[in-house]
Design brief:
By secondary structure, the protein is α+β, with helices and mostly antiparallel strands. β8 and β9 form a beta hairpin. It is globular, with a radius of gyration of 45 Å. The chain starts with a helix and ends with a helix. It is built from four helices and eleven strands; from the N terminus they run αααβββββββββββα. Strands 1, 4, 5, 8 and 9 form a five-stranded mixed β-sheet that branches. Strands 2-3-6-11 form a four-stranded antiparallel β-sheet. The protein is about 30% helix and about 25% strand.
Length: about 220
Amino acid sequence: MSSIRTSRARVLTAAAAGALAVLSLTACGDGSGARNEGASAKASGSSQEDAKSVSAGSQPVANAPLTKTSAAGIGTSRTGAKAATCQGSNTKTVAAPLTRPVNHMLLTVTNTSRSTCYLYGYPAVRFGEAQSVPPVIEASHPQAVVTLKPGESGYASVNLSATDGSGSHGRTEKSLTVYFQGPSGNGSVGTGARPSLPAKGVYIDDSLKVTYWQQSMDDAVIW
């Protein structure tokens, strides 16, 4: 009987020791020192995917599909298109004598083209067979170049004669040619315009002068 009891005690002791060993390994596998191969492999795979995503997101814009906005921007920057100079071929010019101020005529230039044009400087007007153009009123110089989008108009006024009759060499002219200046302001560019005048003509004298081109009619007729 004694030997049987001893044998049973040894079996129970061995079983208890085995159970403790299993519990110890389980605790280590939960993060107490043993390496969890499954979790490590999963983390490694996630890191590789993240690295691929970062690499793809950092590609140059040039390699990405162009949107409508970016394509338009590139087209504009590559062409560097500049607006044209307003002249006789891309505008319509009208000359209209004014009752107020007296002895004045208003020139209206309308952009008839499909693109923007610039009215540089002032109109070089030639009445009849004149060999020179009248001077400009320097005080009328605008703050910026007059810019005409399609259908828009710019203005300049012509002081035809002295209001007090002090002008010399008075005469009546029935034809007018308007020439346009370029960006440099030296001479005329392109073709001139030939607006019609009243049938009776207009009276001018040597006090004849013009304003710079203006963006608004009011700024043109105050001189």
